[in-house]
Input
Amino acid sequence: MLPKNQKKLRVIAMSPANRWLIAFLSVACILIFSLHQAMATKFQNYDLNKSLPSLISQKQANNQANNQQTCRKYKYIGSELEPVSNQVLSNSQILFKTKSDNKALSLPAEPLPRIHQAAVLAKVPIMMYHDILLKKAVIYDLTPQELKKHFELIKSNQITPISINRLFAHLRTGSPLPKKPIVLTFDDGYGGHYEYAYPLLKKYGYPAVFAIHTSSVGINAGRTHLTWQQLQIMANDPLITISSHSKTHPALTKISDKQLYQEVVESKRTLETKLARSIIYFTYPYGNYDERVKKVVNKAGYLAAIAYGTPSEMFANQSKDLFAIARFEKSRLEKVIPQTWGNPTLPQCNY
Ligand SMILES: [Zn+2]
Output
């Protein structure tokens, strides 16, 4: 038995385990107190008369208002607002001008030729069509009835065909799209485009791109081709965008620098003179391009170029850059429709 004064000393000295316990409890008290103070400061900023559901619905309303504002901002791209040459501004901005009063809207954009990171998530298929005629000769051909079936498939799946201008604005600025967008393109300027494709596009209200190689216009050797008069009628329609498809439709990677320049620059000049409008998109004949070709097309003042098959078929958003925008052959329509995606992280617009 210890003397009385030694018992007291043991209580005061405590065991090491008890000392740790006391230290732990002190730290915990300090932490709880600090947390309480922090929460009190945070919540004193809220209106306590508002319930949590009303705060959430207010936030949703704010988001909705912001989304509507964003959708309005980009609504007229293609119909009223046309993109203007890259040379006008620095390469991290894009300029749109109204068709009627020439007012300008400049938007921050990803430096050329990169695709905006907000656009990388969407999946916009660009479909490639060729001739439309009553009697098919090669696998690239479609009858008017088959084209109608394609349009019906697009319609019944609530897919929205958008203009190449809207896609271009999206790829450069991350601007919003409809929920399920698609782009329709018709290559080589065939007579069947005016006779069958154009009336059907008008009937459904679908925008489309027609790629024209200038030396074929008005030529009816073998297949019929569009005349300048037909092209002018189509070019005047807000649904239609004309792109240059070179002058004589060669494989551009296999010709000399001089020939390449003529194919790319002269075709632009001819189309602009004949149709009295800027030609800002290029479509590579056979989808054939390399770095040299891309550079010349960029330098000639085109804003973007549409490819095919190099390196493979994929969604426009997965393209390497704006001078190599990928497409799908028309036969893939059924396969790509379920994957079409306008990126729900962007505002959903009713275009
Ligand atoms: Zn072609």
